Automatic annotation (TrEMBL), chain A:
UniProt protein name: ATP synthase epsilon chain
Gene Ontology terms for molecular function: ATP binding; proton-transporting ATP synthase activity, rotational mechanism
NCBIfam families: ATP_synt_epsi, PRK13443.1
Natural source organism: Parasedimentitalea maritima
Gene3D superfamilies the record matches: F0F1 ATP synthase delta/epsilon subunit, N-terminal (2.60.15.10)
Cellular localization per UniProt: Cell membrane; Endomembrane system
Keyword GTP-binding: no
TrEMBL record, chain B:
Broad class of the protein's primary localization: membrane
Subunit structure as annotated in this protein's UniProt entry: F-type ATPases have 2 components, CF(1) - the catalytic core - and CF(0) - the membrane proton channel. CF(1) has five subunits: alpha(3), beta(3), gamma(1), delta(1), epsilon(1). CF(0) has three main subunits: a, b and c.
Lineage: Bacteria, Pseudomonadati, Pseudomonadota, Alphaproteobacteria, Rhodobacterales
Alphabetized InterPro entries for the sequence: ATP_synth_F1_ATPase_gsu, ATP_synth_F1_gsu, ATP_synth_F1_gsu_CS
Organism from which the protein derives: Parasedimentitalea denitrificans
Keyword Cell membrane: yes
Protein name as catalogued: ATP synthase gamma chain
Localisation per UniProt entry: Cell membrane; Membrane
The entry's keywords: ATP synthesis, Cell membrane, CF(1), Hydrogen ion transport, Ion transport, Membrane, Transport
One Pfam family hit: ATP-synt
Cited PANTHER family: ATP SYNTHASE GAMMA CHAIN, ATP SYNTHASE SUBUNIT GAMMA, MITOCHONDRIAL
Length: 138, 291
């Protein structure tokens, strides 16, 4: 069994990473999942969050938002609308994400009562984004 | 015969024009390289995105529950033409050829009894289309403040377009932009973005059956609006490279023409100077003979 698989992280503006990895933790829409070599072929959409890449050369983290991950037989590709290496992450980037989460929450509140899950989701997203900021010390 | 001083001024002014066009050509060449790199960088994303979307669309597309963005509203009465041009001029036939294509299409649609709406991106196209098709004109996206086109700009345009689609303002959206082939050739292109069509790249899929998380429909509904933004982004980049390419060749021509003109004027200048000298000599000689 192969120990590593090909991993590509691309955003519309540039390709951020292309390397052999042992495992990748993906912030999937239905919850986090970790993809390892020989994972079943899966396509999942992303929620804003932290993408953790483990490779033989060391680990690296990326903040991603919007897009999807495709786990295929050859490897994993993540297509994110926004992807920033944690090392390049600044307060401004985080504020943007928090702002987007807040806007989503406000929009969810405006819809009628029956969409409880919508409001909950948005609230959770907001909390996640704030926790993310603490996690990476901003 | 034009007087010597005038000719001299003329030559000087053409020379400075040549300097400017030469500088513009070099700036365009540098910008072109950057624009091409940007287009190159975005290609992997667009390619994979379309591959996944093609797969999804093929499996869900046929059913009635498919999102409106994919199967359309069921009519093609109202067309939205999104016309992308540049913010600046002096780039040869670049803007006019895009505007011409859009105008042809608009007239075709009108002749077929359809309603046409026009959304322009870039100042130059707005100016020329507003004159002829002012009644169809519904909006404009201003990019004149943008130094470097980013995905954010594409998202803004996509949001505008999708907002109008959700409000039922149109049934079919077509994108007009110029495809970059090389420095001397850019092809004005029309591309339909709504309802979305994805070309499946034959032989590229590995035939694996994917698990979808959440469901196929949910993913498709989430990704289709992003697909519109992706296509707009690709078109913006392609257009940016084309603009610089067109400007580069236009300015190259202008520089060459200015050079020809300088040569012609210099010959004329020398001739008239010679004529003046000859004249003076004749006067002196005839004056001396008269004595």
């Amino acid at each position: 069994m192969a120990d590593t698989m090909q991993f590509d992280l691309v955003s519309p503006e540039r390709s951020l990473a292309s390397l052999q990895v042992t495992a990748v933790q993906i912030p999937g829409a239905d919850g986090d999942m970790t993809a390892m070599p020989m994972h079943a072929p899966t396509i999942t959409t992303l929620r804003p969050g932290l993408l953790r890449v483990e490779s033989p050369e060391g680990n690296s983290d990326y903040v991603v938002s919007g897009g999807f991950a495709e786990i295929g037989s050859e490897g994993l590709s993540v297509l994110a609308e926004k992807a920033i290496p944690v090392t390049e992450m600044t307060r401004d980037h985080l504020d943007e994400l928090i702002e987007a989460a807040r806007a989503a929450q406000a929009a969810a509140h405006e819809t009628k009562e029956e969409h409880h899950t919508l409001v909950d989701d948005a609230t959770k997203l907001l909390a996640d984004m704030e926790a993310l900021g603490e996690h990476i010390n901003l | 015969m034009p007087n010597l001083k005038d000719l001299k001024n003329r030559i000087e002014s053409v020379k400075s024009t040549r300097k400017i066009t030469k500088a513009m050509q070099m700036v365009a060449a540098a910008k072109l390289r950057r624009a091409q790199e940007a287009a190159e960088e975005s290609r992997p994303y667009t390619k994979r995105f379309n591959a996944v979307m093609a797969g999804l669309a093929a499996s869900v597309g046929g059913s009635d529950s498919a999102p409106l963005l994919l199967r359309g509203t069921g009519s093609d009465q109202t067309h939205l033409l999104v016309v992308m041009t540049s913010e600046r001029g002096l780039c040869g036939g670049f803007n006019s050829s895009i505007a011409k294509l859009a105008r042809q299409k608009a007239e075709e649609l009108k002749a077929a009894g359809k309603t046409v709406k026009i959304l322009t991106v870039g100042k130059k196209g707005r100016d020329s289309l507003k004159r002829d098709l002012g009644d169809c004109y519904v909006g404009h996206v201003d990019l004149s403040e943008v130094k470097r086109v980013g995905y954010v700009n594409a998202q803004d345009i996509a949001q505008d377009v999708l907002g109008r689609f959700d409000a039922g303002e149109f049934d079919v959206a077509t994108l007009f932009y110029s495809q970059f082939v090389n420095v001397v050739s850019q092809i004005p292109t029309a591309q339909q973005i709504i309802p979305a069509s994805f070309e499946a790249n034959e032989g590229e899929s590995d035939g694996a059956v994917y698990d979808y998380e959440p469901s196929e429909e949910a993913i498709l509904a989430d990704l289709l609006p992003r697909g519109v933004a992706t296509q707009i982004f690709a078109a913006l980049l392609e257009n940016g490279a084309s603009e610089q390419g067109a400007r580069m060749s236009a300015m190259d021509n202008a520089t060459r023409n200015a050079g020809d003109m300088i040569d012609k004027l210099t010959i004329e200048f020398n001739r008239s100077r010679q004529a003046v000298i000859t004249n003076e000599l004749i006067e002196i000689i005839s004056g001396a003979e008269a004595l």
